[in-house]
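Our consortium's second objective concerns turning raw sequence data into structural hypotheses that experimental partners can test. To show how far this objective has progressed, the report includes one record in full. It was chosen at random from the queue rather than selected for favorable results. The single chain below, 338 residues long, was entered without modification.
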Amino acid sequence: MGVDIGDLLKRSTIEVSDLSLNVVAIDAFNTLYQFLSIIRQRDGTPLKDSQGNITSHLSGILYRMANLVEAGVKPVFVFDGKPPEWKSVTIHKRTEARENAKAKWEEAKEQGLAEEAYKYAQASSKVDASIVEDSKKLLTAMGIPFVDAPSEGEAQAAYMVKKGDADKIASQDYDSLLFGSPLVVRNLTVSGKRKLQKKNIYVDVKPEIISLKDNLNELGISHSQLIDIALCIGTDFNEGLEGIGPKTALKLIKEHGNIENMLASKGLEIPDMEDIKEFFKSPPVTDDYLLKWKKPDTAQVISFLCNEHDFSEDRVTKALERLEASSGGGQSTLDKWF
């Protein structure tokens, strides 16, 4: 998912506490996908209620957001709107990949291959309309605001950071940098321990921050050239040039100055390139949002999670107590939050 420029970028490890009092615009679809992928049973089956409804994302929102709020973070979820027309090929490929992974998951389960089953189960995750609707319902009950982007959520989040309404973006993808976000935080909602595939080894996953300005200076390029590099590699909106990876793309763009000169010198072309490039620079965004954090509606959260989705009332209550104590417990905390 997203553009593969990670190998070019330097990042710094941080603690969640370093983000205290920061408004963090969370890439909603990316984060929900992470919750759906990671929060699963041993055989890869996602958490479900007695009606068969998937609840992994709801568990992720409740407990991970309680952790963030407790650390002083002010989260706001930003949801995708209508995707641009060039994304249709990527969407189709992702749908095919999910269906293929689902079939391999079932096959691995039948053969008793637990690790293989879990891997394919993760790849079969899908954020659909019902998951989005339930997520928004829970966020509202928890007192956490969300924004509906007119198009790409990361573009809207980047606009909010540049505008000063948010301090940073949280996403596992690097597209936020292409949309001009000054600061991007990775691993914020998936920090903890992660098992390496095919190895009985667990590694610590800590939040890390990437500065757009520092990386552009380090690489000796402009933001426009970073977009050019991404177009060479391939983005959600275009296929990359054959045989060109991040380091080669960086070398070519620095050598030729921009992607137009590079393509002309090699007799190559990228369909809709100028339109896609302009989309990264000036994407559809909106000012129609209100960022206001509220104390959680305990009764509403318990009714939704426990009565409708079979969550443990004791565990939900404890999470809500942490959330309420952090977002509205004491005047000094109130001053910081409202």
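The partners drew two points from this record. Residues 88-110 form the longest helix (23 residues). The first strand starts at residue 12 and ends at 13. Both points have been shared with the crystallography group to help prioritize constructs.
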